[in-house]
Amino acid sequence: MKLLITGSKGFIGKNLVIRIKEEGIHEVLEYDINMPKELLESYCEICDCVIHLAGINRPKSEEEFMQGNCDFTKELIEKLKKTNNKAPIIVTSSIQAQRDNLYGKSKKAGEEVLIKYGEESGNKVCIYRLPNVFGKWCKPNYNSAVATFCYNIARDLPITVTDPSISLQLVYIDDVVEEIINAIEDKNRAYEKYYYKIPKVYTVTLGEITSLLYAFKASRTNLDVPKVSDDFSKVLYSTYTSYLPEEEFKYPLVMHIDQRGSFTEIIKTAEKGQFSVNIAKPGITKGNHWHHTKVEKFLVVYGKGCIKFRKIGTDKVITYHVSGEKLEVIDIPVGYTHSISNEGEEDLITFIWCNECFDSDHPDTYYEEV
Known about the structure:
Largest sheet: 7 strands, mixed
Structural class: alpha/beta
Shape: elongated
Helix content: 25-40%
Number of strands: 21
CATH architecture of the largest domain: 3-Layer(aba) Sandwich
Strand order of the largest sheet: 2-1-3-4-5-9-8
Radius of gyration: 29 Å
């Protein structure tokens, strides 16, 4: 199919165009505000489906609301009529169309133009009244509170929240794109004649959003794993990372270095312990201690080593030879003193998971040679 996408350079348009091109099934005819009208006319003649995303929400003058949200829709329809094109039209409107403001009135007027066209021509018309859309590539400090919060918090800039209890309805960009693709393939369902919905809508307070975002920011210093246990927090975290300053994608870790090598904590969780990396120089042995409750998993990813165990109160020594050439997880049970030795000529690098985060007041670590 040849898909005419208006507003192709906008937030939703950019995500949709890239997704469709990735799938490689349909041909995309991109049209945006600065392109010649002759191009739009030629596209209207050959397109098999119209995805009408173009609109105005931050005009320089009030008149531009109606020009961008209603008059352009009229112009698009006239060009389709001119060539008797029966292509279905999928359009993104706004929940503001139900409200008494200039933007809402202009979106409502655009909807009415489309409905009239559908009634007269018999063409399929799908109208999506979108709530706040968030996700990667949304312009901050424009018309998305989530984009602004992400951008500012990532840069230590102030944000303004007059009432944290205010609730927002949000839809994630990938869910919007998925639904539009369903509509292109005629797999969507109307809840009312001409009107359709994005299946997944999040209702979240401003306070909940900002609290999560500040926690995401803090995770780069306190090493806590970001909360991604529910769908909203997962996609909000994905969105937040897209607003990180490009010069700050990396962040430092505290390396505990001595003549034996180093030990570095990477991530921590309150419920699932912590993850670290241990580096041992050639000929070095680390460990020779045991734990009452603390459980660890060792994974050597580079070098050659030897892990030894001895149950406290016994003489039997258990030995495992490990290597980065064959990845094997070694469980470190409680009640066994254990050590790891570098048997190679290069650094021995071991990933370590522990079932609890290190507590200097209660280290649960007791020295005893294997």
